[in-house]
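Task card 7
Instruction: Convert sequence to structure tokens.
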Amino acid sequence: MSFEHVGNAHSTHGAHGDDAMALKILVAGGFGAGKTTLVGAVSDIRPLRTEEPLSAAGRGVDDTDGVARKTASTVAMDFGRITIHAGLSLYLFGTPGQDRFWFLWDELSEGALAAVVLADTRRLEDCFAAVDYFERRRIPFVVAVNCFPGARTYAAHDVSHALDLDRGTPVVLCDARDRDSGKDVLIRTVEYAGRGAPPPPPAPPDRELADLELDAGVALSG
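Output:
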């Protein structure tokens, strides 16, 4: 595989005269989709986490349906780093999943090459906001379906249809707990961005989240 022509890269000059490339990748998705888990599983360094325990005050705000066992949530970002091969590293920035922290996304996405949108088929509508965000900003992204134990399995094309993705947007299945699986997702994301992801058409102005949630529910239940 080749990453020589990937944009949005930061190059550093090594001590022995070899150039090293660092690419910024966002890891986004809905609340409880596995963002912190994926960053932690693949990172070569101890990941930076900004998790706080879920409190009684947040029960009326955070929807934990389907993720009742979740006890903490990211309130700023996750950060990790993985070396894909000599000379190429990825800096991973995990976004917070709750609506009230979306104001951080613009700063986190500055200079990003591409993004991974983690999806949980039990709560597929939760990743619509991330999909819409990256489509509108023309940031290439890959949808990675995190295969939770006991969750119903859907084919990639079914998820693509339910999310109404632009043609060519990759959908892959993964286990966010597994390093090799997460690394494969990241490599696929960099390759997709490096090929020059086709620019998506502008979203219609009346495209509302409620309509998209309804579409997803119908598509996956049909």
